[in-house]
């Protein structure tokens, strides 16, 4: 994969589980094919929404193998690379190559939050481990590590195969800052669901999306309308979508997005411990938002 391919809607795909918490590979393959048939460009697996922290290394590789077999050869498959140690992440990057992945989305190390010298070394080791095209995932809200534009420029200068950044700081100003600092050197992706229409005019060319797992056609439509400058049409659809998109920005986003999938008939609400499915008043409040959105979509 070359830099020119980093554009469009890439679902951060969820990991479906059976009731015993084993991975439902049949459902995973079917879901991935539906997302691509609905207009998505590629698939990002093993991210935060994919519950990567709960998966063993072997499970991660089997997920990648399932997706590679399920998807057309021309469809980009991106592996999320994260772990407790740098050597573990490097090893997973090598296994992603063997599994047929086209690119890597590289996260900071779990748990330990290093200074820039340590963070830079971790990212460099993983990005430099293969020749695959890489996207740096910057999510200081979730991971406590913020790669600012000057630091991003350092990594881009070191690694020709660093082609994109998933920007999840929640600040549209960061999109403009990255663009000002690096120009077209990196493709900028919106990494939070409720910031895409704000980000596209500022220079974002792609969207790593979450609610796309339940509403892929609508996600692609919002993106394409925004990209093509049809902002009145884009806003009409975006305003309907926003109550759901905001479910992507809270601590229980995995449970919430999987609940949306279950309610729309496109997945299961089962999550792996330590996460637990929503219950009681919390679940009812979420269902009220979801069902209002479902009804609103029919009205549109």
Strand content: 5-15%
Stretches where pLDDT falls below 50 for ≥5 residues? none
Going by CATH, the homologous superfamily would be Aldolase class I
- Distance linking N and C termini: 37 Å
Major β-sheet profile? 8 strands, parallel
The arrangement of helices and strands along the chain is EHEHEHEHEHHEHEHEHHHH
Number of helices: 12
CATH architecture: Alpha-Beta Barrel
Helix content: 40-55%
Radius of gyration: 18 Å
The strand order across the widest sheet is 1-8-7-6-5-4-3-2
Query: What's the shape?
Result: globular
CATH topology: TIM Barrel
Overall structural class, as computed from helix and strand content, comes to alpha/beta
The domain tally reads: 1
Please give the CATH class.
Alpha Beta
Give the mean pLDDT.
Answer: 95
Describe this structure in words.
Helix 3 runs parallel beside helix 4 (116-127), helix 6 crosses helix 7 and helix 9 (216-227) runs antiparallel to helix 10. This protein has a single domain (3-228), classed as Alpha-Beta Barrel (TIM Barrel), CATH 3.20.20.70. It has an 8-stranded parallel beta sheet with strand order 1-8-7-6-5-4-3-2. It has helices at 25-37, 57-70, 86-98, 116-127, 140-143, 149-158, 172-182, 196-199, 216-227, 231-245, 253-264, 280-299, and strands spanning 8-11, 43-45, 77-81, 103-106, 133-138, 162-167, 187-190, 206-209. The protein has 12 helices and 8 strands. The radius of gyration is 18 Å and the shape is globular. The chain has 300 residues and is of the alpha/beta class.
């Amino acid at each position: 994969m070359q830099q020119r391919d980093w554009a469009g809607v890439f679902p951060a795909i969820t990991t479906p589980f059976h009731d015993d918490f084993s991975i439902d590979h049949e459902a995973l393959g079917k879901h991935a094919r539906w997302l691509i048939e609905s207009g998505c460009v590629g698939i990002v697996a093993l991210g935060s929404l994919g519950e990567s922290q709960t998966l063993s290394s072997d499970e991660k590789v089997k997920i990648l193998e399932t997706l590679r077999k399920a998807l057309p050869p021309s469809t980009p498959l991106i592996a999320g690379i994260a772990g407790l140690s740098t050597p573990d992440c490097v090893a997973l990057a090598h296994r992603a190559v063997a599994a047929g992945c086209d690119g890597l989305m590289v996260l900071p190390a779990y748990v330990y939050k290093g200074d820039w010298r340590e963070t830079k070394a971790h990212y460099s080791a993983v990005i430099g481990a293969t020749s695959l095209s890489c996207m740096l995932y910057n999510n200081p809200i979730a991971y406590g590590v913020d790669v600012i534009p000057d630091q991003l420029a350092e990594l881009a200068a070191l690694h020709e195969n660093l082609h994109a950044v998933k920007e999840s700081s929640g600040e549209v100003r960061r999109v403009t800052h990255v663009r000002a600092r690096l120009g077209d050197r990196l493709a900028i992706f919106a990494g939070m669901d409720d910031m895409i229409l704000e980000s596209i005019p500022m220079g974002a060319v792609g969207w790593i999306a979450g609610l796309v797992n339940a509403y892929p056609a609508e996600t692609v439509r919002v993106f394409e309308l925004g990209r093509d400058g049809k902002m009145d049409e884009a806003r009409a659809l975006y305003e309907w979508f926003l109550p759901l998109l905001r479910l992507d920005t809270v601590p229980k986003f995995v449970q919430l997005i999987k609940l949306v999938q279950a309610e729309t008939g496109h997945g299961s609400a089962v999550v792996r411990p330590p996460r637990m499915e929503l219950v009681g008043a919390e679940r009812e409040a979420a269902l009220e938002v979801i069902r209002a959105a479902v009804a609103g979509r029919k009205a549109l």
